[in-house]
Amino acid sequence: MENYGVALGVLVKRERLKNNLTAQQLAKKVNFSRSYISRIENGVLVDDSIYKKIMAYFHLPYYGISECQAHENKLDYAYLDFIYIKDKKKNISELLFQLADYKYSPLFAKYMIIQLIYYVTYPEENQQEKETFLAEILSLVHSFSPNHQQIIYDYLGFDFMYSNVSKAKIYFDKAIACGVFNESTSMLYYHISVFQYRCNHLCLAFSFSTKAFNQFSTELNYKRLFYTKFHIANIFMLDQAYDKAIGMYKKLIDNDAVEDKSIVFSNLSWAYYSIKEYDKAKLMISKCTHKRFSYYFNSILINAALKNTSDALSLINEFLKKSNNNIERQIIFILKCKITSQYSDDFEQLLITSYKQAKNSFDITIVSLLNSYLVDYFILNREYKQANYYLRELFNSKL
Q: In which domain, by residue range, is 52 found?
């Protein structure tokens, strides 16, 4: 069992801080010296009876090394299942519930890691619990082992990627500084590549995706290799290297091991749309079996470009009926206004609000499109100062 002295030290420190105790105060409560408590919190492994006594003071159960070894593999497998994309949301949720008591044990660090991944991967679940948990793990992260620190900083960076670019960069930089580890650094490289892609730093995005690809190759992680290749194709497309992007998408489609080809067909359709090959774009989007937001977004614009207005409006109405996602509905409604040239009184505010929200949650392609709509709108209304402001933002996003 790796790093359990460190994990138990962090556990003791967490409970001490939660109870607003200094190391001296805790030492007095459990009849140990302050230096002994400090050694424990610094990761020195002591006898199980000592941890049991400390946890008893906090009115918590404690499971020793021999009692929890049988459950360690479950957490290890849960982590690997996620890394190798075999995870199921329900399975992870059930495992966290099943092993809830065992977080007061040498499994503490691994339990916290799985809980972190769960909260960040499924942010719609237990949002309030998530915020409390993230604040807690952030206060403890420097006490974990370097490998676990890297995973924690990585997922903190990933979580802030869509809401606070500066914070995300700080956490990713800290994760990189931890070192190189099997089955954690590869995910870090991939996440940083996605982050740099969202920031439109395409050279850095390509560099980190290449590093991720090499690590995933070493780890024989074939599903992650597929998504890394897909991401590299997306980088080419954003860089307007459409021939390279189209070539990579086609190779990915020809790979029989790919389970969900809809995301590839969707992006391939957008590549053809971008070079105004609308018939090919329509053919590719028609091959999507999963009707996600991107399917509707691409299909509507493709049909509009082909002057199939009735088909475009039919897709708009279909999406607006089925979707409960406010920002997605706003974007599709904006497309409806553009296609019909019928603008509501609050169209300007809707466009500005949607643009700001999209910057935090959507691909830069959609953000740029909304930006160009803003520029067109203000030019049409002769509000040149506003048009110039958004034109600068559009220009800067393409640097």
A: 4-61
